[in-house]
Task: structure prediction
Amino acid sequence: MFSSSTLVYSLSLFLSLSLLFFLFILSPHILLSSSNLISTADDLDDLSLFHRAAVSSSTNNRRLISLSQNPPPKIAFLFLTNSDLTFLPLWESFFQGHQDLYNVYIHADPTSSVSPLLDSSSINAKFIPAKRTARASPTLISAERRLLANAILDDPNNLYFALISQHCIPLHSFSYIHNHLFSTNSDHHKSFIEILSDEPFLPKRYDARGEDAMLPEIRYQDFRVGSQFFVLAKRHALMVIKERKLWRKFKLPCLDVESCYPEEHYFPTLLSLEDPKGCSHFTLTRVNWTGSVGGHPHTYDASEVSPQLIHSLRRSNSSLDYFFARKFTPESLQPLMEIADAVIFRD
Result:
């Protein structure tokens, strides 16, 4: 006969094994999701940063109005990277001669090794305090909001904010992009962000955190998706860092990680709700999703780089050409540099 202690031990062992079976077999997404949650400390740290940026912007606006100053508008280029900045030489050529019209901010994942070329580069890039990011988690939203807030704090003349990945390249000269962005009065600058309401997998994306998990803040009919990469006008950048209500939902863990791309949902949904007429509803970054693999778009290699490719990537169905394109392999840098002056930067 079993002693009472043996029985208790056996029962405890059975319950422990059952719990492990549930966690690892029946609910694998629980462990995956919880590892990518935003900690309370990190969230509060970000909220403090966003508050400082919002207050700073208001103060700087009042000061510029009182002094009747009209400084040249700048574009803040926000690089979101988790690896080396392979295309730095191409961007260096892109920025050359326009030091007073741009700023560069880099959010590099703490696990990445950012290119040492920056130390000798003519690009005066600013590294911002970064936290680790992961796909299918709200960490990328936090990183992008962090980039916006730091750029707002750093220079009040940043009036447009272009989010770029380490795999992006420019498709036009800096002058072309700057002139087209600032061709209208600053009070009417549009943001260039993709906003879609008819994407085939919209229902699955909406329910990625669980059925009705987004309610009541975000109804299904208000949910939008779009490209991760955008060019935001300053008023919309401020709107993003001031927002609190939607963030409470988007920072929830994803249960269906295959349908969860928070950074492609949060920004389109927010701006569609707050100022749909102030947004273009299309992106300025060209991405080729033909033959995509594992959620990643087609990646151009060195053999595909040509003047014809650049011209084809520029073409869009909107009133503006595409400004940027992704993704490109590191090996494509050399052929891109060979056609930079004659093709890419010749508009």
